[in-house]
Amino acid sequence: MKVVIPGGTGQVGGILRRALAAAGHEVTVLSRRAAGAGEIRWDGETLGDWVEALDGSDVVINLAGRNVGCRYSDANLQEMMDSRVRSARVVGEAIAAVSHPPRVWLQASTATIYAHRFDAANDETTGVIGGAEPGVPDYWAFSVDIAKCWERAQEQAYTPHTRKVALRSAMVMSPDRGGVFDVLLWLARLGLGGSVGGGAQYVSWIHERDFVRAVEFLIERDDLAGPVNLAAPEPLPQRSFMRALRDAWGMPIGVPATKWMAEIGAFALRVDTELLLKSRRVVPARLRAAGFAFDHPTWPEAARTLTHQVRTTRTG
Ligand SMILES: NC(=O)c1ccc[n+]([C@@H]2O[C@H](COP(=O)([O-])OP(=O)(O)OC[C@H]3O[C@@H](n4cnc5c(N)ncnc54)[C@H](OP(=O)(O)O)[C@@H]3O)[C@@H](O)[C@H]2O)c1
């Protein structure tokens, strides 16, 4: 297949690029700083020569958007919104403009669209969309708004010959340097992998292998469209999540952090506490109903596999 990945230079793009190329597909990445073979320059917001890459392609997977690992200042939140909505909109316009549009458009979205909750898991049908939860900082609603506008940009695109799927993904765990697992493992190795703010908030995650398999599954399955949760079936409270990671590495200590300590830590890491404190309890109902089976359904096993990979690939 010919696969085009706008925004494919980041963490998730790296995972998909590697896997799809290894499976024999022709992968083209659209980037604002295209440099190497297989990369084409675009600006993420206006039509240009890059549109030709979509003509005759089979699949488009749009991952473009400002990284969420930052402080949620007004300017950063606005850039997170604009980069996502504009890139989704222009990808839709490009698909509409070409004479041989792709069969399917997978559009990145996020599990963060769901409400901060503890009582039950969010699936695609009965899940509660966030933004109106009591007792959480007002600005948390903005991340939900971003996700809603992002999905709406795809929904509103007129692409009659192209199936549209929104990937409501949880954190994708891979052993790659700089990825989210790398950061969490680094904290655990420093002895800082304890509970945060009590640790009752749920963590949703997906192993990179299952992420790739789910993407391949969604490409194949012509009957699936709309929002699909990409998350392992067993999200777990943050304190259990970090305990399993410490156990997998063999680190006996994990100093707990209160909310104010998390504030200081998040400030030092230049991220926002919402990433640490929001309860993301998301389950993959549509994937499972469609017959998708996870290779890594439980976190303790996935954490052992990932730490083993880190240990064997990073000697010294
Ligand atoms: N990583 C996860 O676990 C996870 C989980 C759920 C959802 N997601 C979503 O999946 C997508 C990919 O995630 P990722 O972790 O690979 O993100 P990433 O590492 O930040 O990569 C996203 C790419 O978007 C492009 N980009 C950044 N700012 C942009 C802008 N203003 N306009 C157009 N393009 C811009 C960049 O490409 P260039 O600089 O090359 O143009 C960048 O490589 C993101 O939208 C993210 O929100 C990720």
Automatic annotation (TrEMBL):
Residues 3-223 form the NAD-dependent epimerase/dehydratase domain. It comes from the Bacteria. Belongs to the NAD(P)-dependent epimerase/dehydratase family. SDR39U1 subfamily. Residues 272-305 form the DUF1731 domain. This is NAD-dependent epimerase. InterPro entries: DUF1731, Epimerase_deHydtase, NAD(P)-bd_dom_sf, SDR39U1. It holds the Pfam family Epimerase. It comes from Embleya hyalina.
